[in-house]
Amino acid sequence: MDFSFTQEQEMLRNTTRGFVDKEIMPFIEEWDRTGKSDPAIYGKLADLGLMGVCIPEAYGGSGMDYNSLAIVCEELERGDTAFRTAVSVHTGLNSLTILQWGTEEQKQRYLIPQAKGEKVGAFGLTEPSAGSDVAAMKSTAVMQGDHYLLNGQKTWISLCDVADHFIVFAYTGNQTEKHSAISAFIVERTWPGFSSKAIKGKHGIRAGNTGELFFEDVKVPKENLLGKEGEGFKIAMSALDNGRFTVAAGAVGQIMACLEASVSYCRQRQTFGKEIGRHQLVQQMIANMEAGFQMSRLLVYRAGELKNQGKRNTRETSLAKWQACDFAYKAADDAFQIHGAYGYSDEYPVSRYLRNSKAPVIYEGTREIHTIMQAEYALGYKEDKTLSHTLPAWEQQNSASE
Ligand SMILES: Cc1cc2nc3c(=O)[nH]c(=O)nc-3n(C[C@H](O)[C@H](O)[C@H](O)COP(=O)(O)OP(=O)(O)OC[C@H]3O[C@@H](n4cnc5c(N)ncnc54)[C@H](O)[C@@H]3O)c2cc1C
Fold first, then answer.
1. What homologous superfamily is domain 241-401 in, according to CATH?
2. A Pfam family this protein belongs to (predicted)?
3. DSSP structure class, residue 12
């Protein structure tokens, strides 16, 4: 067991932190207030290799390990959840899924431009009547000659107006067959019948773009089926193993930001003749943040190490996601509390942290879904089987790219 970061990982952290301090921090209050950010930000992330950090060099990425992706997510969310969410859906949910399940042709056509950051990817699973209960989806894809005809609607999709490519899930078989009748497709924004619309008035992640996707008789070439017909549910769940990992890592960054803001405020604000950091009840909140930060980080890097070794990590990733997001939400609430009335204004970032830290407790498996998963693993009711396509171990990726 080696708990130290490599020199490359330290450099990556410094680079990402420098980027966040220069390109995000000075503008984030305004972006959060107006609900808009600079679209050029994705190009700038790409220039630093951050849109495909753990994608093999052979497929246009930076070829770093999976924990390097965690480092990027930690540092981005220290700036704002919106930009970590973008990397989560682009790299975690989309690009890694194509790496794991895609044909060589799909990797050449979609993965390479995404890893280079020339194109942006997103992930459309949720529907108005299907969130936790994925099989309740209504979208359909019916084979007609050399293409599928895709119809349906997705909602709460991150980067809905920004992404060029989407992994979309729809029934190709009888809906009574539930999970085994769902398939996955790669869909391009420019195809006729595709449209998107942002959701307005979000509680948090306001600098990010989230909304609906509509498919009206969209012709999807049959080469764009990802995996086999009927493998869509398994593909969605394996995509979530990677997405949840990035969400958990981002939550570590959110706690880091809460600690930074709180420690700074504790050292400057005085009550009853001393810094508020000297009051034991305030210290308890700081201590809880520190504990949440350290525990979450260990869970995240353990899941990342399993990914590096090419081992199944659904259980460990779920635990990391559940715990880190709960800790982050509590840390944001405490950071707000430590700031007293000043937390209630936008003079300090903590109200944004509290608003932002709620969605990660909901998306990519709600707190309740992860609680049930962990209980079922512990009780022996749930067990993971080997998938037909596994995420390549990091060493294998490297040798494949040499
Ligand atoms: C900002 C944001 C971004 C998102 N981005 C994406 C995206 O990019 N792509 C995408 O596909 N989706 C995305 N989502 C959607 C997200 O994944 C879903 O919201 C999530 O899966 C929960 O589904 P739901 O909201 O329909 O809640 P429901 O599934 O309707 O759940 C409602 C409540 O019931 C509880 N519940 C449900 N079932 C059970 C059960 N069996 N036992 C106990 N409790 C239960 C839930 O925990 C929750 O508290 C995003 C959501 C948000 C808020």
1. Butyryl-CoA Dehydrogenase, subunit A, domain 3 (1.20.140.10)
2. Acyl-CoA_dh_M
3. H
Fold classification of 7-120 is Butyryl-Coa Dehydrogenase, subunit A; domain 1 (1.10.540)
Cα gap 232→107, rounded to integer Å: 18
Give the DSSP H/E element, type plus range, for residue 186. strand 182-188
365 Cα to the center of ligand 1, angstroms: 6
The CATH number of 123-232 is 2.40.110.10
Question: In the Cβ-directed half-sphere of 346, how many Cα atoms lie within 13 Å?
Answer: 8
Instruction: List the beta bridge partners of residue 154.
Output: 213
Count the Cβ atoms, other than its own, within 10 Å of residue 383: 8
Say what the pLDDT of residue 1 is.
Answer: 79
From the CA of 132, give the closest atom in ligand 1.
29
Buried b (16+ CB within 10 A) or exposed e, 302-311: bbbbbbbeee
pLDDT value at position 333?
98
Is residue 8 among the annotated active site residues?
A: no
By DSSP bridging, strand 121-124 and strand 165-171 are: parallel
Task: List phi, psi (to 5°) of 168.
Answer: -125, 140
Tell me which of 362, 364, 373 to substitute to probe ligand 1's pocket, judged by most ligand atoms within 8 Å of the beta carbon: 362
Task: Tell me what pLDDT residue 284 has.
Answer: 98
The residue annotated as part of the active site, out of 75, 364, 376, 402, is 364
List all residues 6 or more positions away from 348 whose beta carbon is below 8 Å from its beta carbon: 261, 265, 339, 342
123-232 matches 241-401 in fold: no
For residue 377, the model assigns a pLDDT of 98
Domain map (residue ranges) of the chain: 7-120, 123-232, 241-401
Which pLDDT does position 401 carry in this prediction?
A: 46
- Residue 3 is predicted with a pLDDT of 87
Which ranges in 222-342 belong to alpha helices (H)?
232-268, 280-308, 314-338
Q: Given its phi and psi angles, is residue 97 left (phi above 0), alpha (psi -120 to 50 degrees) or beta? A: alpha
